[in-house]
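Exam revision sheet. Question 4 asks you to relate a sequence to its structure. Input first:
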Amino acid sequence: MLEKFTLTVPQNVYCGKGTLDKLPELLRQKKLKNIAIIVDKTVSTLDVYKKLNNKLKLEFNIKQFTDVPPEPTDEQVKKVADSVMEFDTEVIVAIGGGSVMDSAKFISVMLTNPDFYVDLTDKEKIVNRPIPLICIPTSAGTGSEATPNAIILIPKKQVKVGVVHNYFLPSDVILDPLMTKSLPKAVTAATGLDAFCHCIETYISKKTNPFARLFGLEGIKLINKYLKTAYDNPDDMEAREGMAIAAFYGGVAITSSSTVAIHALSYPLGGSYNIPHGISNAVLLPYVMEYNMDAIEDSIPALCDAMGLDNKDLNIKEKGEWLVKEIFALCEYLNIPKSIVQFGVKSEDLDRLAASASEVRRLLDQNPKQMSLEDIKSIYIQLL
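Answer key, structure tokens:
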């Protein structure tokens, strides 16, 4: 018999080329006037955003905030929140990647829960509903627009922390592939593989369930079909839309299930060396999957099918080897770094990194195969 499981998703999701134009109508429906737009600084310079901003100014009170840095710390998010609090904000519109959307989640909750401001990891201080949050992702990777999860960097602890609360879930989402068109190739690659991690980790997690497997597998199929095209040809809107949907599917799968060891080992790398989240996940992806292969035999056939395996005559071991080889090849095609040395990681750092990763029990406990401290360290060694 299956364990109990839950699927929680945003109230409304608007998808397709040009759906950004839906935003003014959506705000009218909500009868909200004072709008804080938390937007990625680069995105704020794009024509597509400027046109939207000019249109909104005609009928709403707009305040724009562009000072969310990549991989923000808790203090940096609080600083943005201080500015947002000075404006009589009724709704937050987050336009950007994971860092912008996650920061907006924290801020939307801080506005109605002042005690939460003190410690952004203390979920017990979240008691009141947040102000409405509308998310418009500009990358196809984090899936933050679909989840009640938010990641924050805590420099004092040298880790990134994932905070999960239902009040972090956006009220509305707009998936417009035009918003991802200007992504640099390297960001398309890293965010696309972040989405791949979400889809495959939730599929093999001990918390997996029919919802997670449905969305995770469909996400993998879309990524297998469209990621290379989006990487090679940024103007291909079919590929961009396919990746936007895949990233959203990965977020839905996280909501129902959980990520596992890839993310657990990724957090200390991001926390100590400021490695972008998508890159640290992508570097770890093939090695952690290789480690897990003998514990996920029931999942291997479906995963191979989703990745386009033609030879159905292979046995399970051979299929597992093929799958790992395909993942390594995908990372190589997308020019993902093969080593973490370039980020300043040294061999003498590995004991500390392994110890830090071993404390991410929320994710490691859901990994299909138990990981000892030495197992974790051996994977980091491979990355050197």
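Marking note for examiners. The chain has 14 helices and eight strands.
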